[in-house]
Structure formats: structure tokens, C-alpha cells
Design brief:
It is an enzyme of class 7 (translocase). One of its GO terms (molecular function) is ABC-type quaternary ammonium compound transporting activity. The chain is an alpha/beta fold. It contains 9 helices and 10 strands. Helix 2 packs across helix 3 and helix 2 runs parallel beside helix 4. It binds adenosine-5'-diphosphate (ADP).
Length: about 260
């Protein structure tokens, strides 16, 4: 059974439709990457699923239950965002333990879970470190541990590696996928970076101007692009090796949604 179902989700800002009847399913333990140019509606889609803003139309179902009206903190949906700062006044342990304390788990259980997670993200023994002494990559690892700690039913990740340099991103892509798989997590992962999408995804959803162009496994997207946009979008990235040659981002070539 699908863990998450999104039905005709629609969002308008000032009369402009930025998400247009988007429907898809995410299977239990699946990593679905949402790939699209900047302005295509990726972040808006995650915000609606998380409940941070209401849809104008449509529904979100978790394990068959309609959660469209359920407040964010009761949805069993975790989030990790690029700009999602760690609590600067709390050490690493307290940052990771935060969601567990909200669940009022017994202290020994919290300690064991935090220790195991820090080991899994490659930061064993970091419990007492101050957050401001960590590198960018270390901060993102702690943020990942924190979002996994309460075992959400679904984890939403919005450009989690966006602020890191390329070498570190490439290293962390593989690590994130392994970790999500080890935790048997169902995840939606937003990026505009094709290489990142293909490295992380079980399936990729290509979003363009608030609509789904295609949902398919990475190899199928290249073999059998469903629309001219998909063919063009994927080719541009591959041909230019965009990020490397220009230092720029082929996705930025695309103009934002305008209707
Ligand atoms: P992406 O994450 O793919 O870059 P977004 O979901 O952030 O795209 O944005 C989709 C479109 O919606 C963009 O054109 C953006 O300018 C617009 N948008 C997003 N949030 C708001 C808002 N709060 N008010 C008005 N327009 C918005």
C-alpha cells in the first residue's frame, strides 16, 4: 500500500497557479526525488505535504488517512530543509534529542537513540560539541540525525545539500541514500540537481510549472522521456555537465512559472 498519497494538490498565489492538480503516490520505504527547475513548485509541494500552508484544492493521505487538515506537528512527517538551522544554544546531543524529548521517551532510550544516530551519520562522540564549532557538512549530518530521530512516517528533505560545496555534496549524496535505506525511511527529496537526483532516487518525479511531467526510475527517464520538456531538461544537464563547466546551474536557464 502507498504510504503517502497526494491527490490533485493545488496552490495559487495571487491568482497564479504554482501547483496544478498534482497527484502521485510514494510507496513504503521508497525514496521519491522531486526534480525540477527553480520556480517549478517543489518547495511549495513539500510545504503543503508538511502542512505548513493549506492547499487551495486537493488532499494528502498518510497510510490511507486524510491528513490535509491535521496540524504539522501531528502529521508524523519529518522535515529537513537547507536553511533549517540547528538550535544554536543547544549542543549536538540536545539538537538530535529534541524530537525524542517531545515524544517524552525515557532518558536511557533517548541517549541510546542519539548515540546510534550520531554513529550512523559519521559523527560518533559528537554529543557534547557546540553547534557553532561544526563544519557545514557536520551541521547537515546533525540535522539529518535530528530529523530521523523521532522516526517520522515520511521524511521531507528540501535541497538538504544546497549550501555545501560540490565535493562534499557528492560524498553526502551516497551517505544520505544509505542512511535512509538503513532506517527504512519513506522520503521525498527535493533538488534541482540532476546528478543528485539520480544518485538518491528510487523514482524521480519531474516537476515543471507546477505540473508533473513524468514519474519514473532514473534509467527509464533517460531511456524513455515522456515529454519534450523531460528530454530537454535531462539532456541539458548531461551535455553541459552544467554545474562543472559553468559553475552555474542548468536548471536556472528555465524561467519561473508565469501564467
Ligand atoms: P521551487 O521550490 O521549485 O523553486 P517554489 O515552490 O519555491 O519553487 O515556488 C513556485 C512558485 O511559487 C514560484 O514562482 C514562486 O515565486 C512562487 N511562490 C512561492 N511562495 C510564494 C508566496 N508565499 N507568495 C507568492 N508566490 C510564491
Amino acid at each position: 500500500m502507498a504510504r503517502l498519497r497526494v491527490l490533485a494538490l493545488t496552490r495559487r498565489y495571487e491568482g497564479r497557479t504554482v501547483l496544478d492538480h498534482v497527484s502521485f503516490e510514494v510507496a513504503d520505504e521508497e525514496i521519491l526525488v522531486i526534480l525540477g527547475p527553480s520556480g517549478s513548485g517543489k518547495t511549495t509541494l513539500l510545504r503543503l505535504i508538511a502542512g505548513l500552508e493549506p492547499p487551495d484544492e486537493g488532499h494528502v493521505l498518510l497510510d490511507g488517512q486524510d491528513i490535509t487538515e491535521v496540524p504539522p506537528h501531528r502529521r508524523r512527517i519529518g522535515m529537513m530543509f537547507q536553511e533549517y538551522a540547528l538550535f544554536p544554544h543547544l549542543n549536538v546531543f540536545e539538537n538530535v534529542a529534541f524530537g525524542l524529548r517531545m515524544q517524552q521517551l525515557p532518558e536511557p532510550e533517548i541517549r541510546a537513540r542519539v548515540r546510534a544516530l550520531l554513529e550512523q551519520v559519521g559523527l560518533p562522540g559528537y554529543e557534547r560539541r557546540d553547534v557553532h564549532t561544526l563544519s557545514g557538512g557536520e551541521k547537515q549530518r546533525v540535522a539529518l540525525a535530528r530529523s530521523l530521530a523521532p522516526r517520522p512516517a515520511v521524511l521531507l528533505l528540501d535541497e538538504p545539500l544546497g549550501s555545501l560545496d560540490r565535493a562534499l555534496r557528492e560524498q553526502l549524496m551516497g551517505e544520505i541514500r544509505s542512511l535512509l535505506k538503513a532506517e527504512r525511511m519513506t522520503a521525498l527529496y527535493v533538488t534541482h540537481d540532476q546528478a543528485e537526483a539520480m544518485a538518491i532516487a528510487d523514482r524521480v518525479l519531474i516537476l515543471h510549472q507546477g505540473r508533473i511531467e513524468q514519474i519514473a526510475a532514473p534509467e527509464e527517464l533517460y531511456r524513455d522521456p515522456a515529454t519534450p520538456f523531460v528530454a530537454r531538461f535531462l539532456d541539458v544537464g548531461t551535455l553541459l555537465e552544467g554545474r562543472i563547466l559553468s559553475g552555474g546551474d542548468p536548471a536556472e536557464v528555465e524561467t519561473p512559472v508565469g501564467k
